[in-house]
């Protein structure tokens, strides 16, 4: 059975032609129906083995190419007759045929040009078909480096007896897959002479991540090989087959890894699924150095069996001992701190530094007799600092207290001597005695010896005074003369701790007294300036009371309850340990809550930064951060802490607010509120001529309100200058209707000057100031 090739759409060449002088026609490729293994097949076949110079072509229809398939495979099923089965007359018989291809961007129809085809392969059978048997061969060849939209296949017969049963054209793909938690899409396998592998990028499955994008390679045979990179489940998720699932309640995973979720450690909460860590239960904490995967710890209990003994010890010495706490909170980094307080009457003051120990005992020396000493021993661990910040009352549960006293009596000795007052002919002196309780004791008397400081004399002569009190006024001295003075204290039994170090004091000269009038004149001028400020404050309050509606500045200047201080200033230098003073008056801030942004100046102790303070449960606020420069001395550090202790005692809208300090870490810092406009002197210079008299008056009122507050706190500033006045942005938004008129100021000032009883003496001299200017809130 035969059919024309065009009925199946394939093109044959050359077309069938009549041979000259013969009734037969030359036939090329034709469609035949064959039976193979009981099944009917249509085949293309050609069998012109008796004719010479055969060149028969069979071309397929136009085959569209997948854009990514640059390499396709051609599978042929065919049979080839054995040339020997045709007899000796078939000398030109062949047992092979050729495969060709031609690329094109469009279907060219019936146009056929052999020159456009390139040879792919010569097809030879594995088994040939003989007369009484049929062998079906299957051969696969590939066509590569395809780049156009489609292509044709062509089969060339050069004198064989061939029947083609099927032609299958296909390309290979690497199937979509998930490897190492990375999803890779189905990918067409392609390659060429230089590219055997195709790199494919993948994406991590949901709830997985990777430091680098995962990659894998697709081979020409459609297989995945050589994965590069790996996805790992995010914190709170673990791998389950080819996906990431949440950790179950009571389990956690802290990092992105291939590990499984772990049970929550001791003393932690077992909350929702998908936990990256287990938070601590109430009353338990993690130190800053503890891993997030570790258990939480509680505070240690108080040390046990605190005892004090002075037996067989030198005078003024105690030995404190205690046993470790019964409960350590699950930690092994237990240390101890000892706080000593000396109590006199109803007042207790620190008597030494708070020290940190790892032993269970400490020796305390240089104690005075007949005083009550209270020792507090506190157990600490790595989480104690967290408890001190979050719940100070809870931290006290880790301490125990003991009160004791020493009964021995040391001979009296002079601790220090100071100048109280002086003029041109007299010196007033006083001194301290150790032990302190002997100062006012009638059983103690003193011998004071003094002499002129004159190195020209061969013999040193002292004037000796016997005294019952710890102070004296030495009269009939020479003006402008230096004197050397020493004091010795004696008990009732005549014992003494020795004389004090010889100290030098000098009387005033007559010339110095002549300058007093000039100084008094300056003091009176300062008094008048203070009166002017008082007048302004009084007028502002009167005008404020006449308005039912308060202006925005009244919250700063006109509320007497806000301006009234609730406590009295305490000089931090009265504390022997500045660390105790700063902890009493300032809040400790953890450095992680502070962010430095830029340097805005340099202070006495180091650089000053603008920064951000973000505490737990608080919004971010702009702050100024004072730092302590590297290489500081101990005195500089004490002065630095004293400044914070001073600022921490003041709470007023016209006084810079202290936010807190950093003292427990390497870099000490003082954190205050940030003043956007900077110092007053620079602000006035930069905006010279821009302010009205009312705005300048508002500045005076703000300064006066702050100084009045400091005065009522019994604090003397002594450095009040425009450079130390800082400005907020909002300080000029004031209601002008509250401003006093100039005539009112003149009227009230006149009344004050005409009423001497309303004026206070402000020129009370402070002997600590060498030029004898007044040093009080009035002088400020």
UniProtKB/TrEMBL annotation:
Membrane topology field: Single-pass type I membrane protein
EC number: 2.7.10.1
GO cellular component labels: dendrite; plasma membrane
Major subcellular site: membrane
UniProt KW Ubl conjugation keyword: yes
Segments passing through the bilayer: 518-540
PANTHER family: EPH RECEPTOR A5, RECEPTOR PROTEIN-TYROSINE KINASE
Name this protein carries in UniProt: receptor protein-tyrosine kinase
Provenance organism: Nothobranchius kuhntae
């Amino acid at each position: 059975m035969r059919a024309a090739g065009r009925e199946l759409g394939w093109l044959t060449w050359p077309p069938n032609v009549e041979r000259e002088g013969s009734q037969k026609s030359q036939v090329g490729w034709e469609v035949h129906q064959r039976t193979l293994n009981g099944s009917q097949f249509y085949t293309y076949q050609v069998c012109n083995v008796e004719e010479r110079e055969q060149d028969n072509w069979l071309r397929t229809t136009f085959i569209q190419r997948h854009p990514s398939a640059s390499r396709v495979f051609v599978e042929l099923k065919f049979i080839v007759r054995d040339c020997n089965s045709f007899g000796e007359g078939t000398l030109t018989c062949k047992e092979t045929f050729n495969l060709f291809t031609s690329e094109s961007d469009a279907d060219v129809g019936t146009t056929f040009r052999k020159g456009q085809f390139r040879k792919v392969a010569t097809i030879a059978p594995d088994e040939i078909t003989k007369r009484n048997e049929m062998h079906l061969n299957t051969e696969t060849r590939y066509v590569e480096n395809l780049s156009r939209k489609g292509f044709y296949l062509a089969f060339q017969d050069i004198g064989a007896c061939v029947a083609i049963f099927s032609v299958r054209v296909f390309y290979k793909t690497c199937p979509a897959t998930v490897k190492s938690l990375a999803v890779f899409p189905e990918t067409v396998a392609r390659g060429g002479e230089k590219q055997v592998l195709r790199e494919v990028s993948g994406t991590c499955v949901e709830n997985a991540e990777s430091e680098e994008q995962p990659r894998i390679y697709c081979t020409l045979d459609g297989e995945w090989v050589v994965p590069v990179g790996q996805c790992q489940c995010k914190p709170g998720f673990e791998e389950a087959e080819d996906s990431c699932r949440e950790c179950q309640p009571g389990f956690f995973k802290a990092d992105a890894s291939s590990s499984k979720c772990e049970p929550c450690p001791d003393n932690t909460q077992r909350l929702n699924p998908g936990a990256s860590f287990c938070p601590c239960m109430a009353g338990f904490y993690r130190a800053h150095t503890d891993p997030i995967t570790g258990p939480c710890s509680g505070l240690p209990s108080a040390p046990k069996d605190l005892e004090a003994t002075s037996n067989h010890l030198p005078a003024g010495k105690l030995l404190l001992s205690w046993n470790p706490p019964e409960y350590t909170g699950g930690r092994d980094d237990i240390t101890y701190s000892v706080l000593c307080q000396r109590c006199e009457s109803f007042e207790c003051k620190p008597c030494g530094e708070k020290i940190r120990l790892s032993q269970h005992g400490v020796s305390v020396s240089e104690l005075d007799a007949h005083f009550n000493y209270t020792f507090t021993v506190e157990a600490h661990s790595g989480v104690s600092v967290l408890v001190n910040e979050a719940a100070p009352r809870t931290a006290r549960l880790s301490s125990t207290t003991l009160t004791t006293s020493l009964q021995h009596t040391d001979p009296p000795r002079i601790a220090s001597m100071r100048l109280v007052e002086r003029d041109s002919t007299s010196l007033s002196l006083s001194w301290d005695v150790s032990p302190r309780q002997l100062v006012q004791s009638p059983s103690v008397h003193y011998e004071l010896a003094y002499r002129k400081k004159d190195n020209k004399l061969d013999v040193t002569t002292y004037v000796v005074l016997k005294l019952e009190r710890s102070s004296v006024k030495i009269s009939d001295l020479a003006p402008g003369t230096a004197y050397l003075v020493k004091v010795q204290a004696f008990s009732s039994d005549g014992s003494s701790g020795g004389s004090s170090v010889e100290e030098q004091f000098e009387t005033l000269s007559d010339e110095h007294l002549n300058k007093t009038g000039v100084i008094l004149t300056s003091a009176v001028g300062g008094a008048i300036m203070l009166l002017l400020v008082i007048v302004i404050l009084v007028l502002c309050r009167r005008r404020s009371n006449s308005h039912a509606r308060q202006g925005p500045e009244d919250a700063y200047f006109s509320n007497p309850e806000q301006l009234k201080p609730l406590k009295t200033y305490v000089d931090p230098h009265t504390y022997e340990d500045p660390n105790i003073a700063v902890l009493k008056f300032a809040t400790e801030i953890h450095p992680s809550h502070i962010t430095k942004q830029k340097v805005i100046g340099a202070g006495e102790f180091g650089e000053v930064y603008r920064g951000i303070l973000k505490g737990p449960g608080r919004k971010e606020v702009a702050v100024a951060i004072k730092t302590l420069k590297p290489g500081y001395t101990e005195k500089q550090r004490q002065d630095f802490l004293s400044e914070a202790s001073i600022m921490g005692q003041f709470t007023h809208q016209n006084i810079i607010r202290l936010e807190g300090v950093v003292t427990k870490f390497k870099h000490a810092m003082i954190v205050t509120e940030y003043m956007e406009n900077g110092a007053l002197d620079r602000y006035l210079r930069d905006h010279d001529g821009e302010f009205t008299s009312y705005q300048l008056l508002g500045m005076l009122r703000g300064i006066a309100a702050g100084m009045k507050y400091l005065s009522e706190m019994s604090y003397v500033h002594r450095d009040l200058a425009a450079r130390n006045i800082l400005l907020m942005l909002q300080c000029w938004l004031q209601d002008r209707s509250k401003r006093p008129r100039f005539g009112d100021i003149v009227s009230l000032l006149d009344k004050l000057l005409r009423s001497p009883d309303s004026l206070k003496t402000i020129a009370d001299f402070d002997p600590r100031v060498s030029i004898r200017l007044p040093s009080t809130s009035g002088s400020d």
